[in-house]
Amino acid sequence: MPDAASRSARLFARAQEFLPGGVSRNTLLYDGPMLYASYAKGCRVVDVDGRERIDFANNVASHIHGHAYPPIVEAVSEQIGRGTGFTMATEIEIDFAELLCGRSDSFDKIRFVNSGTEAVMAGMKAARAYTGRSKIAKVEGGYHGAYDYAEVSQAPSPENWGAADCPAAVPLAKGTPRGLVDDTIVIPYNDTEVALKILNRHAHEIAAVVIDPLPHRVCMVPASGNFVNALRRWTIENHALLIFDEVITFRSEVGGMQAHYEVRPDLTAMGKMIGGGFPVGALAGVNDVMQVFVSGEYGVPLPLSGTFSANPVTMTAGYTALRYFGPSEVAKLNELGDYARKNLTELFRTLDIPVCVTGIGSLFRVHLKPEPPKNFRETFQAPAEKAVVGAIVRSLYEEGFMMIHTCSAALSTPMTRLEIDMLVDALNRILKSLRPRILEVAA
């Protein structure tokens, strides 16, 4: 890792003079020195001090083809030569919309925005416009971006999360309006009976139920079919909408994680990998709900605009990325994810330590737990556990690997079994050295 004389350290000192905390993204702050990228190719990133690392973070699951993917570079360079944005629509927006709508039976229409946060925000607002109701229900601990309503109970703690059968709605940011918190209904993950009891108390007030079918910050365990089907039935019977947040999980199948279930959500929020490395968000849904964005007899129920929405550079990058991520590429990358989880599980068993791995497809997360956690409360890390997880991630950076700072990974198509084997080998050394601390946390 860089010392005080490194270029990264000097850049961070300079950054703190002009940027609050030295960054514009709090997710870059973790238990280790700030690092600055110089360039990247495929699944490897080189920092400004010349150190190369294998990238298992991929800008928090945004790069499905790794870095500087030649077809994207070529297509984007050509588009930049033609212009980067206009007060006109472009044909590539239609091409990309057609491609995405063709990947899922749930997508009749689609609107592009600039981030996953915006996509979820638009979905929640669309649900309110369509139903005329104000309350949004979400899973405890679920991360859905930086929208005020989405942030409620994103990071509760034992001190404020309330009873398991009646989770409290806990604001994330200081100063969050009380009324906003009161309009958010919190349900436990994968607990169908309790979730339905809570929803029934507010049946005539709820506009939508929002779920991430593989919630990264909850436990990265797939939502059960029973849970998803029950929520779908409840929303239909109570005239509310079901929203899937597939900002991270859309990579899991050609049509997203929802392809694993026998339900059709009303709306789906997407982002990250569908932008081909550029800022993007999208909200797709069924025809009648998506009509809230269209002018009718009484005007537009929900105006939705953005200067950079459907920017032709992003549309070109995303269209190209998805064209090269079809059924065979999805299957190959998911197989690599299976290989990673299998070998990590075997490593933890051999080391005889209380560590497990969760995930599906090309996503996985390492937990300092003997068994996969089932919900946010089981996933929650006390300070000592969080410190050890931070030490693992920091050690991986030292060993030449980039991970999402929850000790999670998002694979990319340039990766092979070689990179997985290298990661497992590095974790073998790291976990052996940290074994006393891991056992102390588990005691």
UniProtKB/TrEMBL annotation:
<dbReference type="GO" id="GO:0008483">
    <property type="term" value="F:transaminase activity"/>
</dbReference>
<dbReference type="GO" id="GO:0030170">
    <property type="term" value="F:pyridoxal phosphate binding"/>
</dbReference>
<dbReference type="InterPro" id="IPR005814">
    <property type="entry name" value="Aminotrans_3"/>
</dbReference>
<dbReference type="InterPro" id="IPR015422">
    <property type="entry name" value="PyrdxlP-dep_Trfase_small"/>
</dbReference>
<dbReference type="InterPro" id="IPR015424">
    <property type="entry name" value="PyrdxlP-dep_Trfase"/>
</dbReference>
<keyword id="KW-0032">Aminotransferase</keyword>
<dbReference type="Pfam" id="PF00202">
    <property type="entry name" value="Aminotran_3"/>
</dbReference>
<dbReference type="InterPro" id="IPR015421">
    <property type="entry name" value="PyrdxlP-dep_Trfase_major"/>
</dbReference>
<comment type="similarity">
    <text>Belongs to the class-III pyridoxal-phosphate-dependent aminotransferase family.</text>
</comment>
<keyword id="KW-0663">Pyridoxal phosphate</keyword>
<keyword id="KW-0808">Transferase</keyword>
<protein>
    <submittedName>
        <fullName>Aminotransferase class III-fold pyridoxal phosphate-dependent enzyme</fullName>
    </submittedName>
</protein>
